Amino acid sequence: MKILGIIPARHASTRFPAKPLADLGGTSMIKRVYAQTKKSDSLAKVVVATDHRDIFQHVSDFGGDVCMTSIAHASGTDRCYEVLSKEKEKFDYVINIQGDEPFIAPEQIELLASLLDGKTELATLIKRLENQEQLLNPNIVKVVFNKNHEALYFSRSPIPHWRGKETDWIHQHHYYKHIGMYAYRSDILEKITSLKISSLERAESLEQLRWLENGYKIKVAETSFETVGIDTPEDLEHARHYLRINHD
What we know:
Layout: E1 3-9, E2 23-24, E3 27-28, H1 29-38, E4 45-50, H2 53-61, E5 66-68, H3 76-86, E6 93-96, H4 106-113, E7 122-128, H5 132-136, E8 142-145, E9 151-155, E10 176-185, H6 186-192, H7 199-204, H8 208-213, E11 218-222, H9 233-247
């Protein structure tokens, strides 16, 4: 399978404008994501997809492949399709790597790529939740899946609801969180970007529910690697602390 890795890097952000250019240990966040992604042997090509000239120029300056995309895209998925449609090469799959996870492990990309056999429509990663606080956090998306490791539902609420137990659900069942890295078969990527926003997506603010509502299957694979996403300036300070402890 020939796989294109795309890193969406949007400039505008209510909580953290120009986030991809933020300094993290003397290196920009987007450069760290790009360098980690390039370590994956499964990707034939890696491209940063941005909507801003400063990010475009920065990626070009450090020698990365970059594509300017529309500022009108509602999601990274839409941005990925624009990049794919501009590519002269043909790719069987696209993997969408989050541009705000500077410590993404190449092994996670390899794991996701291992699911891509030509039949898989969509795929993503999950990780087992470790404590009740994570389970109850609405910013951590939870997922349930069937015996074939196909997602049944994603939610910001704890799923499944453990009837008859008020607390300590984490010790009653294996709960999983969603790791927001997606793989799309190229023909499926084209189709899902033309779908209208669904009622479940509107309720949970999760675009993958639109795909499930329309009958598409999302394979899941469990990773043991923890992700360190950066959504706010406070998250950046935590990441700098993480970098000092783990990478010095």
